[in-house]
Design a protein that fits this description.
The protein is an alpha/beta fold. The protein has nine helices and seven strands; from the N terminus they run ββααβαβααβββαααα. The strands form two sheets. A four-stranded antiparallel β-sheet has the order 1-5-6-7, covered by helices on one side. The chain has a three-stranded parallel β-sheet with strand order 2-3-4, with helices on one face. Helix 3 crosses helix 4 (102-111). It is globular, with a radius of gyration of 19 Å. The protein starts with 7 loop residues before the first strand and ends with a helix.
Amino acid sequence: MAVERIREIRGTGLPLRGDDIDTDRIIPARFLKAITFEGLQDHLFEDDRAQIDGHPAGNPAYNGARVMVVQSNFGCGSSREHAPQAIHRRGIKAVIGQSFSEIFFGNSVALGLPCPTASRDTTEALIALIEQNPSAEIAVDLDTMKVTADGRSYDLTLPAAAREAFMDGGWDATGLLLDDYDQVRAVAARLPYVTAAW
């Protein structure tokens, strides 16, 4: 199993207006009882979809979207990793926002879900574009740290360590271990608590 290097994400967008969207709105707590993450995508923004007519996550125009555009302090609230899991399993492969909760950001990196930030003007422009043209292609380039849409290019920001992890595959800790399993076995063979040789 080779680690996945993430350099570019292309696809249509899903616009999500509003600051301070917390993890309980992303995936309500009553859906966290399962012991796996299977099926979480079916409950993404479940309560918001029921309460807000035309919520983007329930709008068929945004089915198949790969890039979600949000605003400020996205993913705040409780530290549940189910939130980025539900988003990722919905098919979203990058989230662009003005800012993210630190824990949400870290959980997203561990999943291979880049969350670059952009200025408020940029997120507003991207959201407006996607609302006007849901089939518009959004290209997120981690090499150049630019997002391109409708012939226009905007600056993105991502902490250097996270950007490097996506570019070299370091975000995928399990993949890295499986890529060099002979070395894992060699280390395990030297550990008395693994070999019971103490």
